[in-house]
Design brief:
Two copies of one chain form a homodimer. Chain A folds into two domains: 63 residues, Orthogonal Bundle (Arc Repressor Mutant, subunit A); 157 residues, Chorismate lyase (3-Layer(aba) Sandwich), CATH 3.40.1410. In chain A, the strands form three sheets. Chain A has a six-stranded antiparallel sheet with strand order 4-5-6-9-8-7. In chain A, α1 crosses α3 and α2 crosses α3. The first copy, chain A, starts with 8 loop residues before the first helix and ends with a strand. The first copy, chain A, contains six helices and ten strands; from the N terminus they run αααβββαβαββαββββ. With 236 residues, chain A is α+β, with helices and mostly antiparallel strands. Chains A and B meet through β7, β8 and β10 of A and β7, β8 and β10 of B. β10 of chain A pairs antiparallel with β7 of chain B, so a sheet runs across the interface. Chains A, B: This is Putative transcriptional regulator of 2-aminoethylphosphonate degradation operons. Chains A, B: It comes from Duffyella gerundensis. Chains A, B: Keywords: DNA-binding, Transcription, Transcription regulation. Chains A, B: One of its GO terms (molecular function) is DNA binding. Chains A, B: It holds the Pfam family UTRA.
Chain lengths: 236, 236
């Protein structure tokens, strides 16, 4: 006793990584509260937060608003050239996928979206907003914009299913060519809460414009990903 | 006088955007100092910084460490499936490219790099570290790792040039297949200073493994981009 330990942020970070590696905390586990950790390591909250911030930067832990710190799962390997059969892709990587439908309704196209879909401004498209989880963690907020002409009655279908399968089984439409853009940037206020991060947190905005087997543009996706949830991987 | 104006961050942001749109500030221009702006808008530094932070999130301005705020240029449209003829790509988009060689030397391969290059750990590869600018702004810190067997004498060549051209003209090597991964995440401490951002600022880490016309792995690139400098665009 009587000895004051001045633990550095580096040392705390290494100790936490060692505890994760030793299996004391598993992927997706919540770490003890900051107060508890700072008492355990006999350090200040400032030093502890520095340590946690370093681990966050290394992708080893992540934070959820008001919930605390969690051990980070591996990133999803994602090839946007392949059709986004989200559930199949996630399950092939040994993980559990979930889709929640947040909203599905007709919307009036603005100029930019009309151009994307090769439709006219003011025309109606269908917008399906969904939240997708991997192993229970929300990683992707996505808005699908569909040209209704190809999909009569789709809005009343079970939209928690793969759209790819629905297109194929119900409408005989297969995906053909795809064009995608990846824009890194802060997550907008309409997507961040569903992903349980603060608006402005770093994210990845991926748009995909999809054509069918006859090279007609059938839909486009606006995907908002947690930056730490995926690794884009393309071979050509 | 005697009237205290309480300007909101939103109002200041709109005023600044209007001044940029009106041509008072051009792309790449430095904005007036924060003190000057807060006096001009009769507001606190806190509110002013909130306004500047909002514009940064919208991609309209960006910050350089210790230098201040600048009007953001458009993002580079980048297709990693095409060979990184950086100068040609930038110039096709009507902009000015520059390459600075930071370092070029033999390095001993660790396990991960050896695997990437289909070489053995402990073998020597060549590492060329370069900084690339668009219109004078540092946007990309890149490390090229080359298998020396294909490129005798390359380290003494003019490495500010396009490697693509050098490979082709001096060694008869053309690029063939490519595999790339895109990993969004904080910029590491060895790359951030050259890009004039704080370590941990959001960035994009792109790795590319390149094969030649005979399908042999010839080099790999580790690219560290400012997140706001590029938009990845791929069509297939």
């Amino acid at each position: 006793m009587g000895k004051l330990l001045l633990t550095t942020a580096d040392a705390i970070g290494q100790a936490l990584v060692a505890r994760i590696a030793a299996g004391e905390f598993h992927q997706g586990d919540r770490l003890p509260a900051e107060r508890e950790l700072s008492e355990h390591y006999r350090t200040t909250r400032i030093t502890l937060r520095e340590a946690l911030g370093q681990l966050e930067q290394q992708g080893k832990i992540y934070r959820e608003l008001r919930r605390g710190w969690f051990v980070a799962p591996p990133r999803l390997i994602y090839n946007p050239l392949h059709r986004s059969h989200f559930h199949a892709m996630v399950e092939r990587q040994g993980r559990v996928a979930e889709t929640e439908v947040l909203d599905a309704r007709p919307v009036t196209l603005d100029h930019a979206l009309a151009q994307t879909l090769a439709m006219h401004p003011g025309e109606e498209a269908w917008r399906i907003s969904r939240l997708r989880r991997i192993d229970g963690r929300a990683v992707l907020y996505v808005e699908h914009y569909l040209n209704p002409i190809w999909f009569p009655g789709l809005l009343t279908a079970d939209l928690t299913r793969s759209l790819t399968e629905l297109y194929s089984q119900r409408y005989g439409i297969q995906y053909g060519g795809v064009r995608f853009t990846i824009l890194p940037g802060p997550l907008p206020a309409f997507a961040a809460p569903a992903l349980k991060v603060a608006a402005g947190s770093p994210g990845l905005f991926i748009t995909r414009i999809n054509r069918d087997q006859h090279n007609r543009i059938i839909d486009c996706d606006h995907e908002y990903w947690r930056y730490d949830a995926l690794c884009v991987d393309v071979e050509a």
